[in-house]
Give the backbone structure.
Amino acid sequence: MNAPNDWRARAANQTRLAYGQALLELGARESRTVVVSADTQDLLGIRPYIERYRHRFVEMGIAEQNAIGAASGLATTGLRPYVCAYAPFITARSMEQVRNDVAYANQRVVIGAAASGISLGVAGGTHHALEDLALMRSLPNMTVIVPADAEEAYAATLATLDIDGPVYMRLGGRVEEPPLNSEPFRLGRAAQLRAGNDLTVIACGALVEMSVRASDELRKDGIHVRVLNMHTIKPLDRDTILAAAAETRGIVTAEEHHLTGGLGGAVAELLAVEHPTRMRMIGMPDEFAVVGPTTKIRAKYGMSAEAIANACRSLLNHG
Amino acid sequence: MTESRGALIKRLEGQARQIRRNVWRALRAGGSGHAGGSCSAADILAALYFHRMRVRPKEPEWPDRDRFVLSKGHANAALGAVLAQAGFIDDSVLDRFYGYESPFGMHPDIKVAGVEMCTGALGHGLAIAMGMALGARMQAQDFHTFVMIGDGELHEGSNWEAALAASHYKLANLTAIIDYNKIAQSGPISELIEVGPLADKWRAFGWEVREIDGHDMVQVADALGALPFNNARPSALIAHTIKGKGVSFAENTYVWHSNNVTDEIYAKALAELGEP
């Protein structure tokens, strides 16, 4: 089914609004849905949900540890909590609550984390979330999803209905239309956006679109790059990655996250053991990012279509 | 036949003594553990499980049961003891504490029937219990949620986030019991970071507060029977207790926050505790 349109018209960072809009749909589909906000009612666009389902909404204020603990307690009573929060704070600040109260206790809590990566570029380093995937994917029981655009965020949020355990949903992706994926969202199964047998680019979130652009650019030079949208970081789609490693000459990963512990790390961990493969990794180097517009920060640290294309050329030319 | 008040108090006192005996038994099986904070909590746990709380030990997931979260999870030996005495779990587990692959480690785990949440990392229980109380209200369930918090645990700021929210949402179906034994792992709490005046703090956060002697079973039973203290506020019960209560060498000393428990120490403790 198609998502409602109002969030499509909004200007910025639509995945977070798509999450909020999907909660409205979830409220109708699942009477146990309850939304927990950490002073993020507009950030995730949940005011329509609140108007309709006020009796299944709780505002916890600027208190992320408490929001996660409360969500865990709510889940024990049979409710299905959806947390709305800022990515840097709901992961790092309340990491122990996420680990113990949600992941270790294996509670059905979905964490919607807006403002991930450097989507709040001008807010400065304290507000960049560049280690959240490393933190969340290190937790047993946790499902980790990184939607690449608003359509995918909407579909992925609805798909959490079928997940019997905790979920981290990293929000902060692409703005422009049309949707990147032509296939329906399938949890744990990467979407192939471009075919090709020379190389493979595996990307997530905001860098999926840039990977497509890089692939299209390289095609002009006769280089055929397969592009995989790895929207589910955990559980990782091992089969699709191993097939890419076997069928193409190398793998480039691309993500708006530190090179330590994110998608690239997950792919490298798999391949190092199962199918050692030449790789290049695109992402944030081991430093805190400067202040600035998101697009400029991305370009500075090599998180761009151009950098992805260059990594592909380097891999082909130098192995 | 209705139990007389005198008989009730006498029964609960005996059950609390049995909790203490079983605490030392479990810690002997484990070889070490948190005797001090387990024994300070024993009287309150007895009154909760054998008098105040609505539970079905043979149906631990019964949706209408009252909830108890042991936020000061290091008192797990006392929780294990009361769950065994109430019939949630087999009594023999008290002889297998810390066993390999056992769900009975130093801290509570929801794998154990009757344990509502994995705790022991301090400062988590109140937020979780507050979520349970909210969940009850949202689903029009009338169960009550209790959470036992250590006084040293109140150093953790997360408690005060949850205290704010519980007050804001007027959760009269939530009770925080502070096991105020005044000693933490490294020494007296007043010498680490003072937490008092506790009653004033909880009142300032919008809670209805009562203070009792947490080892006087009449006061404990009366206070728990009077809940909620206010129909528009969460309740805070500050129970003044003695760390290591019941065994002279363990009382009021931080050494017994956690310590080794040999067969010899176990025998000395049991000799002091007497029969249930």
Observations:
- Strands of chain B lie at 32-33, 67-70, 145-150, 174-180, 183-184, 187-188, 208-213, 235-240, 259-260.
- Residues 5-30 of chain B form the longest helix (26 residues).
- Chain B touches chain A at residues 63, 67, 110, 116-119, 121, 123-124, 126-136, 138-139, 141, 157-158, 161-162, 164-165, 169 (CB under 8 Å).
- Chain B has ten helices and nine strands.
